[in-house]
């Protein structure tokens, strides 16, 4: 399940610090990390995670098996402002925005049974043993 947050008014560099913390975690663990984090981006990221979980529930997926698969933070529009400087000049201020995409994945907690790998040599040995010996006809 995916959820998007477009034109969030904070620099992508700062938002990526929060996004990297929750990547690969269970949803419940990601919520607790975001609540305890003293960063400005943690609040909107928590709302985005809640939105993704709601999308998963509406699709019929239980939230106990959900993991944060990926969080991508791309740059959005840049609003350009000017600040007056000395001698009548001005310098530019870039007000950056972020586009955030959060992807959840469902992982089953069941353990997979390991299958033994069979080498080619073992296959040939078994094939030789299972072949019936050629019968020679005795002519009388």
Automatic annotation (TrEMBL):
* GO aspect biological process, one term: translation
Q: SUPFAM superfamilies, per this entry? A: Ribosomal protein L22
Q: Which domain of life is it from?
A: Bacteria
Which InterPro entries does this UniProt record tie to the protein? Ribosomal_uL22, Ribosomal_uL22_bac/chlpt-type, Ribosomal_uL22_bac/org-type, Ribosomal_uL22_CS, Ribosomal_uL22_sf
Which keywords label this protein? Ribonucleoprotein, Ribosomal protein, RNA-binding, rRNA-binding
Name a GO molecular-function annotation: structural constituent of ribosome
Q: Which PANTHER family match?
A: CHLOROPLAST 50S RIBOSOMAL PROTEIN L22-RELATED (PTHR13501), LARGE RIBOSOMAL SUBUNIT PROTEIN UL22M (PTHR13501:SF8)
Q: What is this protein called?
A: Large ribosomal subunit protein uL22
- Lineage of producing organism: Bacteria, Candidatus Nomuraibacteriota
